[in-house]
TrEMBL record:
It holds the Pfam family NXPE4_C. Belongs to the NXPE family. Residues 283-473 form the NXPE C-terminal domain. This is NXPE C-terminal domain-containing protein.
Length: 482
């Protein structure tokens, strides 16, 4: 029945799904969203190239060191210039290539990411900081040529999303499933689940003989409706993605400098990329020094009298599972056991400590039904927390938004920022930490799972959370190091 629903929905005219034009004046929130969208939109070329020969060629492109020196010191900056050419050997005149740059020393287990500067004319500068002593190798990969990046950005934002949801309505012993989502066919009778203050709206097709309040559960409905492939971009650009990866190697010998004494990491530090480096599976921030716990007992002492709230996806859920598996006194209180994404609560009565995890609400892509009745955005969850010096809130969103227009991601982030500002007015002592999005192996689901979307989300986070007294856990930089 689930598959039939999805297939039936695919047959509808896409024009029925797109949002209807509004004539009401744009709200302050809408103006902020559009401003950020315009900033991000400037990063990508407005190209419609559909043939391989006109796209970026890793083989033909040129890479060299800018202002090379005979030796370098720890802390020095290194700049690599990349000049893109297409398969015909012509110099590219626009930017937008999705690159990934990494510096590493295998013998030391050390690695760091490079910051990519796009001049929007086919020229790129990749900036590295030399964090450790020894020979280093630099690799630069073209993950998507600019033509593919342009297509991913354009198609992601031209309709309501690649994944819809299926809602379960329950009345006594009777159950009915209907399609739900951000935008639905307006010719049908719909149930609206709205938050007027935050301008967050979600809809379900209203089932016959059911009240809208009888919605009990929700799960995702995968379409795999490949607009990019239908445009022939997929055939000519994405299909050979693995063959356009390029690795450029440099071996650089540099001298060690005096060890820098860094201040302790605190809240309010700027989100920057790259923010540090990895050595022997330990993360070392660039701008500050982290406190290290030599034993689990020390960690438990730090967490004593703490109330820790985790809001996010499965990557943040792994944190609470780590605590549970490594702190013996931490006991799990079983609230539900119906699916993996149910709320988790761990208690340590001896230390008077509580750690909880709750998924961020829609969109949340999972094939198992989850309860709708306790769904709240992270914004609303923060509003329910009193806060004090013992309270720590850690949150992340990102990967589940990749399948939807960027508009919804920006709106959610802006609302989260406003909730944090309200929290700090009543409790400035509360600690808030924002975890950036994870990256992973590239796969064939470019539209929904490409790390290109993670890089877009990172740029948006830099804009939204600037000048806010929060901490950042820079996971994107860590993932690209290892």
């Amino acid at each position: 029945m689930f598959l039939l629903f999805c297939l039936k929905w695919l047959k509808q005219d896409v024009s029925d799904i797109l949002p209807e034009p509004t004539v009401a004046p744009a709200s302050k929130l809408e103006l902020e969203i559009n401003s950020i969208l315009n900033q991000i939109n400037q990063k990508f070329p407005k190209t419609t190239v559909k043939i391989k020969e006109k796209s970026t060629s890793a083989k033909n492109s040129k890479v060299f060191l800018r202002n090379p020196k005979s030796s370098y010191c720890v802390g020095d900056h290194l700049t690599v210039q990349v000049q893109m050419f297409d398969y015909n050997g012509s110099k590219k005149t626009y930017g937008g290539d999705y690159l990934r740059a990494r510096m590493f020393t295998s013998e030391l287990g050390a690695a760091a990411s490079g910051r990519i500067e796009d001049f929007q004319n086919g020229t790129y500068h990749v900036h590295f900081i030399l964090f450790w002593e020894g020979n280093v190798t630099i690799s630069i990969f073209i993950m998507h040529p600019s033509e593919a990046s342009s297509a991913l950005w354009r198609f992601r934002n031209q309709w309501h999303g690649y994944v819809d949801h299926l809602g379960k309505f329950t009345r006594q012993q009777e159950v009915q499933e209907v399609v739900c989502g951000f935008e639905l066919n307006k010719t049908q009778e719909l149930c609206e689940y709205g938050d007027q203050r935050d301008e967050e709206y979600f809809y379900c097709v209203k089932p016959n003989n059911f009240d809208c309040d009888s919605l009990t559960d929700m799960k995702s409905c995968d379409f795999y409706f490949n607009f990019v492939c239908l445009s022939t971009i997929c055939i000519n650009i994405f299909a050979y993605q693995k063959h356009i990866l390029k690795q450029i190697l440099f071996v650089i010998l540099f001298l060690i400098d005096v060890t820098e004494v860094k201040e302790k990491c605190t809240l309010g530090m700027k989100l920057e990329y790259p923010s540090g480096y990895v050595m022997k599976n330990v993360w070392y921030p660039k701008a500050c020094s982290m406190m290290k716990y030599d034993s689990l007992e020390e960690l438990g002492t730090c967490l004593q009298w703490k109330f820790i709230y985790l809001f996010g996806d499965s990557t943040l859920r792994q944190w609470i599972m780590y605590f549970k598996n490594h702190i013996s006194a931490l006991a799990q209180f079983y609230l539900y056991d119906d699916n993996w994404s149910h709320q988790l609560l761990n208690l340590d009565l001896k230390r008077n400590m509580k750690i909880s995890w709750k998924r961020h609400t829609y969109p949340f892509i999972t094939s198992s039904y989850q309860s709708w009745k306790e769904e709240r955005t992270i914004t609303r969850e923060i509003d329910l927390i009193r806060g004090d010096h013992r309270t720590v809130i850690i949150l992340n969103i990102g990967v589940h938004f990749r399948a939807y227009p960027t508009y919804y991601f920006i709106k959610r982030l802006l609302n989260i920022r406003r909730a944090i500002e309200r929290l700090f007015l009543r409790s400035p002592q509360t600690k808030v930490i924002i975890k950036t999005e994870n990256t992973g192996e590239m796969n064939k689901n470019f539209e929904t799972m490409s790390d290109f979307h993670a890089s877009v989300h990172y740029s948006i986070m830099e804009i939204v959370f600037t000048n806010l007294n929060v901490g950042f856990c820079q996971w994107m930089g860590y993932d690209q190091c290892i």
